[in-house]
């Protein structure tokens, strides 16, 4: 009995050890909390600072990232065109989609992850607008997606489908150029493309398409984004090409398989 009691006593933990464990746990918890709080505070500070950018901040960003090609006075150089008259809408479109700053010369600027935040893009746009006024941001109503979808679909087929495909899936052009897909393009950038005519796209002035018609086209494209392939499989949205290939492979293939099966059955 004495030996068993001694073993039990030797297996018990000291009250000091429990206090040490509790203290270590509290220190770890406090350290993690303090680190998380500091990170959140830094993120909030960065967000607040970036959201308060002005045209003067845009000037500094422009000089650091854009002036090499477009010139300090936006007059253009051998590497980039003049920005006089492009306005804030074109600048926001090019910078926010990652097309600018340009990574390398090519048939056209590639869409890539943007190098600047939206606030920085808007600051550069504000600076360019103050120095070289041009097309401005549209009203909220123009890009609200509540226009006439049916009319927008007809206008899109007449004016845009030859390059962007009737389903907005994009398409190849000449000399290595292409019309980008519109399956994830924002309403603002749809409007900006129609007004500023980036890359090979023509400019649609109010004489070609008035504001209501632009609104209808945007509404149609937003409808397509929300209702992908309502008729069934999209098959790449390539129209008769993919549909004919599907019918040839599976339709003719099925007929051949049935013919072989009937022949084997009769033999």
UniProtKB/TrEMBL annotation:
<keyword id="KW-0249">Electron transport</keyword>
<keyword id="KW-0813">Transport</keyword>
<dbReference type="GO" id="GO:0016829">
    <property type="term" value="F:lyase activity"/>
</dbReference>
<keyword id="KW-1278">Translocase</keyword>
<keyword id="KW-1003">Cell membrane</keyword>
<feature type="transmembrane region" description="Helical">
    <location>
        <begin position="245"/>
        <end position="264"/>
    </location>
</feature>
<dbReference type="InterPro" id="IPR009152">
    <property type="entry name" value="bc1_cytC-su"/>
</dbReference>
<feature type="binding site" description="covalent">
    <location>
        <position position="160"/>
    </location>
    <ligand>
        <name>heme c 2</name>
    </ligand>
</feature>
<feature type="binding site" description="covalent">
    <location>
        <position position="163"/>
    </location>
    <ligand>
        <name>heme c 2</name>
    </ligand>
</feature>
<dbReference type="InterPro" id="IPR036909">
    <property type="entry name" value="Cyt_c-like_dom_sf"/>
</dbReference>
<keyword id="KW-0679">Respiratory chain</keyword>
<feature type="binding site" description="axial binding residue">
    <location>
        <position position="164"/>
    </location>
    <ligand>
        <name>heme c 2</name>
    </ligand>
</feature>
<dbReference type="InterPro" id="IPR050597">
    <property type="entry name" value="Cytochrome_c_Oxidase_Subunit"/>
</dbReference>
<keyword id="KW-0479">Metal-binding</keyword>
<keyword id="KW-0472">Membrane</keyword>
<dbReference type="GO" id="GO:0005886">
    <property type="term" value="C:plasma membrane"/>
</dbReference>
<comment type="subunit">
    <text>The cytochrome bc1 complex is composed of a cytochrome b (QcrB), the Rieske iron-sulfur protein (QcrA) and a diheme cytochrome c (QcrC) subunit.</text>
</comment>
<feature type="domain" description="Cytochrome c">
    <location>
        <begin position="53"/>
        <end position="132"/>
    </location>
</feature>
<keyword id="KW-0812">Transmembrane</keyword>
<feature type="binding site" description="covalent">
    <location>
        <position position="66"/>
    </location>
    <ligand>
        <name>heme c 1</name>
    </ligand>
</feature>
<feature type="domain" description="Cytochrome c">
    <location>
        <begin position="147"/>
        <end position="225"/>
    </location>
</feature>
<dbReference type="InterPro" id="IPR009056">
    <property type="entry name" value="Cyt_c-like_dom"/>
</dbReference>
<keyword id="KW-0408">Iron</keyword>
<keyword id="KW-1133">Transmembrane helix</keyword>
<dbReference type="GO" id="GO:0008121">
    <property type="term" value="F:quinol-cytochrome-c reductase activity"/>
</dbReference>
<dbReference type="InterPro" id="IPR006311">
    <property type="entry name" value="TAT_signal"/>
</dbReference>
<keyword id="KW-0349">Heme</keyword>
<protein>
    <recommendedName>
        <fullName>Cytochrome bc1 complex cytochrome c subunit</fullName>
        <ecNumber>7.1.1.8</ecNumber>
    </recommendedName>
</protein>
<feature type="binding site" description="covalent">
    <location>
        <position position="69"/>
    </location>
    <ligand>
        <name>heme c 1</name>
    </ligand>
</feature>
<keyword id="KW-0677">Repeat</keyword>
<dbReference type="GO" id="GO:0005506">
    <property type="term" value="F:iron ion binding"/>
</dbReference>
<dbReference type="GO" id="GO:0020037">
    <property type="term" value="F:heme binding"/>
</dbReference>
<dbReference type="Pfam" id="PF00034">
    <property type="entry name" value="Cytochrom_C"/>
</dbReference>
<dbReference type="Pfam" id="PF13442">
    <property type="entry name" value="Cytochrome_CBB3"/>
</dbReference>
<feature type="binding site" description="axial binding residue">
    <location>
        <position position="70"/>
    </location>
    <ligand>
        <name>heme c 1</name>
    </ligand>
</feature>
<keyword id="KW-0456">Lyase</keyword>
């Amino acid at each position: 009995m004495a030996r068993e009691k001694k073993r039990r006593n030797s297996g018990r933990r000291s009250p000091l050890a429990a206090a040490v464990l509790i203290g270590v746990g509290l220190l770890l918890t406090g350290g993690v909390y303090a680190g998380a709080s500091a990170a959140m505070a830094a993120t909030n500070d960065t967000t607040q600072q970036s959201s308060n950018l002005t045209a003067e901040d845009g000037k500094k960003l422009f000089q650091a990232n854009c002036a090499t090609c477009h010139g300090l006075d936006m007059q253009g150089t051998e590497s980039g065109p003049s920005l006089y008259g492009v306005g804030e809408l074109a600048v926001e479109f090019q910078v926010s989609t990652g097309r600018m700053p340009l990574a390398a010369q090519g048939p056209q600027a590639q869409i890539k992850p943007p190098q600047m935040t939206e606030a920085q893009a808007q600051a550069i746009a504000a600076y360019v607008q103050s120095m070289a006024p041009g097309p401005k941001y549209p009203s909220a109503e123009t890009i609200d997606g509540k226009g006439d979808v049916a009319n927008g679909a007809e206008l899109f087929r007449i004016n845009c489908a030859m390059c962007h495909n009737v389903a907005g899936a994009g398409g190849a052009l000449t000399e290595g150029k292409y019309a980008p897909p519109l399956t994830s393009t924002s309403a603002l950038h749809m409007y900006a493309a129609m007004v500023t005519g980036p890359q090979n796209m023509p400019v649609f002035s109010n004489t070609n398409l008035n504001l209501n018609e632009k609104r209808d086209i945007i509404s149609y494209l937003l409808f397509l984004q929300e209702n992908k392939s309502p008729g069934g499989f999209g098959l790449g949205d390539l129209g008769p090409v993919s549909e004919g290939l599907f019918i040839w492979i599976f339709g003719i293939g099925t007929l051949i398989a049935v013919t072989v099966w009937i022949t084997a059955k009769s033999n």
